[in-house]
Amino acid sequence: MLYHFDQFSIGTIVQVILLACITGYFLSLQNKSRPTWLMTLFFAGLTLGFTSLAVVYTLVTSLWLVFSEAMWIFLLLAFVAILQFPYHYPYPYRQNEARIVLGLSVLFVVIFTLATIRVVLAPENYTQNHDLMAVVFLGVDIFWFIFTMLRRAVHASAPTQPASSSERARTWMRIITRPEKRAAKMLVGFALTMFIPISILVVEAISIGGFISSEAVTYFYQIVMMIFLLTLAFVYVNNAPEPTTFLVKIIGVSFVLMMTVVTALLTIALPAYEKNYNEARKLEVQLVEAKLDNNDFSQMPAGLRYVISQPAPADFNQPNYTLLYTSDPAFTFDSPWFSPNSLVATNSTQFAIIFTELIFGDRYNRTIDLTESTTRYTVYFFQQGDKIYEVGYDYADFVHATQPDGANILLLIIGATFFLIFGFRIFLHSSLIAPLEKLVDGMKRVNENDLSVEVPIHAADEIGFLTGSFNEMVRSLYEATAFKESVQHKLEAEVTERTRQLKEARDAANISGSAEH
User: Given its phi and psi angles, is residue 160 left (phi above 0), alpha (psi -120 to 50 degrees) or beta?
Assistant: First the structure.
């Protein structure tokens, strides 16, 4: 199967790896509470959704529409789980309302799934309104999540609300902007975190309308999504009912920083390979254009697969193609490849968008359903007189020319992930976590009045200095306690001796008084 690695696909794969690691961490927790289960289901749904998106970006397959729509379904299911989270964290809240929200959410997912099945079975029924409906629902979910969290924060801070609406509004603003109680701070923190993906949905909605390039959307989305996933995971880890460890936080931060650097490098490096390919192909297209002037189809470029034309302006809804040249015996004009959904821009639009304006000089991708297989081509357009010509190249040539470095980077990402999870974890545990755990054990023994403890120093670093200071403190405390006990024993001995002397003196006085009588 043909694959395609670029800054979009690898960036999505990076997020899949991050989501899988977060989901695996939540699944590894013992005795998970209901809020943790809901958070686990949320990240699991995101993992499946972004895995489907990675397949769309990476694999050249005729099932791309299936995976594209599966992405939306998994994302909707993920948000069904996260929408229940405000009603269970940190304790149950308005269960009747939670059931109503759950029922409405599941109903929408069912309706969307049925509509998706209809689109998959009949791709000609696909419209951008279908995806826009999912974006709107996700946006409503996020806003309801934020509203419920803020409402709970206000209730946690001031269970009894003022009577007047103006006083209630001021109370809400004060609690939201300056929460004082720990529960309110946690709830407000979750609400503020969910503001991050709103920007993604806004940009996604704009891109569906064709007002912003897919490249700009992807760059923005990848950076913001990494920030959102890290922030949400850390906010919950810091406030979860289950205990966490310092090691998890360090590995998480290190992992995200590494992935962010890799994504940034991909954004700079991989487009350069595509640019070189495009420049070479454009020179060949100029050669083809010159041959068409002379009606000469001999000695065409080796990588060329077909040349077709249609009257200008281009009409992809009702195309009128004429086949001028092909080197592919399986090439045919049979339907359904005439569909505009078979043509995808690489710079200016989203998947399967119907072009209202053809941009000459850009590279496009076209998927053609041939008699026995589905083939993808990279295509370029130029205009001569009253005709528009389409020059198609085998997509495999594009992959071989631009993707070897992408595949190597993917292997590097996977290797770095295993290193962070296993190798870096061992290093951190031996050099940082283990000394801290011994120091914590020493503190626990001191709290139990065991002043004979002495924590070993592993290295002359900050932790070693802290351990040495702790040992000095315990030693000083031991000496002070010992001195106090010795003084106390001495005083007790002196008191005992003085008491004995007084008793002897009193007894002697009693004997003397008895003798006189």
Answer: beta
What DSSP character marks residue 141?
A: H
Name residue 394's beta-bridge partners.
Answer: 377
Angle between helices 246-293 and 7-28 (to 10 degrees): 160
pLDDT tens sequence across 353-393? 344 456 677 777 776 655 555 677 888 888 888 888 888 88
pLDDT of residue 333: 59
pTM: 0.67
403 to 10, 302, 432, 478: CA distances (angstroms): 11, 20, 40, 67
Between 380 and 123, residue with greater pLDDT: 380
The angle formed by the CA atoms of residues 313, 324 and 124, to the nearest 5 degrees, is 55
| SS (HEC) of 92-128 | CCCHHHHHHHHHHHHHHHHHHHHHHHHHHHCHHHCCH
The number of beta carbons lying within 10 Å of the beta carbon of residue 61 is 17
**Residue 206: partners with Cβ closer than 8 Å, 6 or more residues away:** 212
Report the chain's mean pLDDT, rounded to a whole number.
76
> What is the enclosing helix (H) or strand (E) of 275?
helix 246-293
Residues facing residue 470 across a β-bridge? none
Query: Quick one: average pLDDT of 421-443?
Result: 72
